[in-house]
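Board notes, transcribed. Complex of a protein with adenosine-5'-diphosphate.
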Amino acid sequence: MNGAVCPDPRPPTSDLRPPTTDTSMTAHKQVSLPVVERFQHPRNYGPLDRWDGHARITGPCGDTMEFWLRIAEGRILQANFTTTGCGTSRAAGSMATELASGKSLPEAARLEQQDVLQGLGGLPEESEHCALLAANTLKAAIGDYEARQQTTQRCDECSDARCVAKHRGQEESEQEFHERQALAQRMCQIGHKLVVMSGKGGVGKSTVAASLAISLAAAGKQVGLLDVDIHGPSIPQLMGLDGGHVLTHGEELVPVQAAPNLKVISIGFLLANNRDAVIWRGPMKYGVIRQFLKDVAWGPLDYLVIDSPPGTGDEPLSVAQLVGQPAGAILVTTPQELAVADVRRSVSFCEKVSLPVIGIIENMSGLTCPHCGGQIDLFKVGGGERLAREMNVPFLGKIPIDPQIVTCGDSGAPYVQRFAASPAAQAFAEVVKHVLAAG
Ligand code: ADP
C-alpha cells in the first residue's frame, strides 16, 4: 500500500483492547500531549454491542478504522472506534469520537480532518491522514445511520399498482410472499442494478466490476458492490478487504464501507477461507443469492454493481430473476473467438430473461510491448467489438492488457485510481461514461 509510513508497528487486528504502551510513539518528539495521552489510553476504544450507525473504512495507508454510534433523538449518545493503525491512528480515532459525542448529527457530520487535528494539537505531517480517516469514518457511520432511518416504502403504501410485489401469488405461502416483498422493498431503494457477467471465468469480470464500482463512487454516486460469484469470490482481494467479516444488525447484513460512498459485500466474507472450494447444491445457490439481495442493508443507492457468477447457468439466472428493474447487463469478454462464442450465449441469455444489455467490454485487448512500444495482440483484438455489432448491442470499449492490473489486483489497490493516466484506466473511464449516460 502507498501512503505515509506509520511510525510504529500495528497491533494485531484481532486485539480490540487499547494498547497501553507505545514506545516508538513516546520516542516521537513532535507529538503533543493530547496525542501522547490518547495513543497510550485511547478514549472510547472497542466495539459497541448495541449501535445505530456503523462504518469501517480502509484508508490509502492500509489502516482500517471502524466506528460504532449510539444515536437518539438526532444526537450522538456514544461513539466508539477501533483501528488497526498505529499510535496516531488511535489518537485520531479517539479525538473524533470525543468530538462527536453529545453533538447533533448535522454538527457531528460537519467535523473535518482539521477539527480532529486541532483537538489533538496537531499531528506529524506524515500522520495527518489518520485524522482524515477518522473524520471520514465518522461521517460514513452517520451516513449509515441516516440510510437506516430512511423509511423503506412499504409495498402496501406504494402507488405502483403494476408492481408484481404488491399482491400475493395464488401458489404463494404467506412466508414466501413476505420474503418476496422484502426483496422488492430492498431493490426499490436502488437506482440501477448493473449485472457484470461473462461467458467464462478469468476474463476480468471481477476486475471490471470492482473498477466500475470505484469509478462510479469517484463520480459522486452512492454505490454498492455485491459479489455473488459463489465459486470464486475475488472482490475481497481486489478491493483490499481480504479477511473482512460481515456484521449483522438485527436480521440485516451490514456491508463493509470501502469509501464514504462505496459499500461492499462478498460471499467471500462469509466463507471460512474464501480460497476453499465450496460445493453448493442448486437450491443453496439460489437461496444464498436471494438472501444477499434481500438482507444486505445498503440503504439508498444510485448503483448496485453485481459481480455475477460466470456462464449462463442457474446462478446468473438467479441474479437476473431476482434483481428486478431497472437493471442491465455488462458483458465482459476477451477478444479471442473461444471467449466471444461464450458471450454470444450470454447475449441470448439476457434476451431470454429480459435483462437489457448495457453493452460489451473487450478486456485484455492487446498489449503494448514495454521494450519497443509495439502492439502485441496476445488474445487477438476486435472479437468483442465485432460481436457487439453482430448482436446489435452497444460496445463499451477495449481495455488493453496492463501487468499493473494484476499487481494492483493482487495487492488490493484500486488500479483505476492509482494509474488513472494509463491507457487501460482511460479505457475504463470511457466505459464509465457510457454507463452513466445509459442512465
Ligand atoms: P474473472 O472475474 O473473469 O474470473 P478477474 O477479474 O478475477 O477475472 O481477472 C483474472 C485475472 O486477470 C486477475 O489476475 C486480473 O488482475 C487479471 N486482469 C484482468 N483484466 C486485466 C487486464 N486488462 N490486463 C491485465 N490483467 C488483467
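The two ends are 34 Å apart (CA to CA). The pocket of adenosine-5'-diphosphate is lined by residues 198, 201-207, 234, 363-364, 399, 401-402, 405-406, 409, 424 (CB under 6 Å).
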